[in-house]
Amino acid sequence: MDNQQIVKTENIKKYFPVKSGVFSRVKSYVKAVDGVDLDIVEGETLGVVGESGCGKTTLGKTILKLYDPTEGRIFFNGRDITPLSSRELRPLRRDMQIIFQDPYGSLNPRMKVEDIVGEGLYIHNVVPKSERTDEIRRILEVVGLREDSLSRYPHEFSGGQRQRIAIARVLAVRPRFVVCDEPVSSLDVSVQAQIINLLLSLQEEFGLTYMFISHDLRVVRHISDRVAVMYLGVVVELAGSDELYRSPLHPYTQALLAAIPIPKPGAKKKTFAISVDIPSPIDPPSGCRFHTRCPIAEERCSVEVPVLRDVGGSHYVACHLV
């Protein structure tokens, strides 16, 4: 794997204002992402996992500057893209793409597949106009769709086929970095496997770098080189995929892995009970954000914020008790 760093974030924060009253005054903020430092190496897949509402998707969209960060800096290929305007970002949009979660809502129902996939080719002038149709046919073939798909509309396809169209749309502009925002969560299990295998083969063929966001830890383990675990807007653990699943250190990670069903009747598994009451991102707990649910928390955990630190072997964890 190439060791060149393609994406880096420094203390990224994204707050959404909560307004109320007749004059819609800002009452408070939803701290969706609250100080995240990450680096993504070219050619790798960084998995990002956590419960719904932990900030995974917001982090991905902020890295792509679909959301402007409230604070912090974002680097792409060594360049600070944080202050760039929409016009200045436009040449970089080819290199930074996203596959959305919902293959039903992410495709324009009024556009034919040829127009959906070809739109990026036109905007970024990837190939000459005379070669555009042939290029679209080639891309559809790469993602496993037939040529007769060109003249059809999204509603004529199954969920898995629609996600292939969405992947073709991304692939058309020849990106380097792709945020995969839960791209298989709305699909049947058998179709999930097909899409995951497609993403892996495309990564190998085109040298893509993925940020793979999901709440399904089994899928993440299969596709990821490294995994970042998020909780209430912060990263609490980061390690190589095999290392994280073999030896989780943070209590929250241990709870997530303990919740994975074992497909074997009567099999015994380790339990790790935590409170189901999830704090609000509007007013997160002081100290360690997980201490209100953690079964081993101490007094220090409620006061002092743990730092994400390397405990050996590039395994990072934010916990006072590790």
Notable traits:
single chain; Rossmann fold; 322 residues
How would you summarize what this structure contains?
By secondary structure, the protein is an alpha/beta fold. The chain has nine helices and twelve strands.
Structure overview:
The strands form 2 sheets. Strands 6-7-8-3-9-10-12-11 form an 8-stranded mixed beta sheet, sandwiched between helices. The chain has a 4-stranded antiparallel beta sheet with strand order 2-1-4-5. It has helices spanning 56-63, 86-89, 113-124, 132-142, 159-172, 189-206, 217-223, 241-246, 251-258; strands spanning 5-20, 25-41, 45-49, 71-76, 79-80, 96-99, 177-181, 209-213, 226-231, 234-240, 309-310, 316-317. The two termini are 30 Å apart. It has 9 helices and 12 strands. β9 and β10 (234-240) form a beta hairpin. It has a domain at 5-95 and 175-247 and 310-317: P-loop containing nucleotide triphosphate hydrolases (Rossmann fold, 3-Layer(aba) Sandwich).
What is the fold's blueprint, element by element?
Elements: E1 5-20, E2 25-41, E3 45-49, H1 56-63, E4 71-76, E5 79-80, H2 86-89, E6 96-99, H3 113-124, H4 132-142, H5 159-172, E7 177-181, H6 189-206, E8 209-213, H7 217-223, E9 226-231, E10 234-240, H8 241-246, H9 251-258, E11 309-310, E12 316-317
Parallel strand pairs: 3-8, 3-9, 6-7, 7-8
Antiparallel strand pairs: 1-2, 1-4, 4-5, 9-10, 10-12, 11-12
Helix- and strand-based class?
Answer: alpha/beta
Neighbour order of strands in the largest sheet: 6-7-8-3-9-10-12-11
The CATH H-level superfamily of the domain at 5-95 and 175-247 and 310-317 is: P-loop containing nucleotide triphosphate hydrolases
Percent of residues in helices comes to: 25-40%
Strand residues, percent: 15-25%
Rg, rounded, reads 21 Å
Which CATH class of the domain at 5-95 and 175-247 and 310-317 is shown?
Alpha Beta
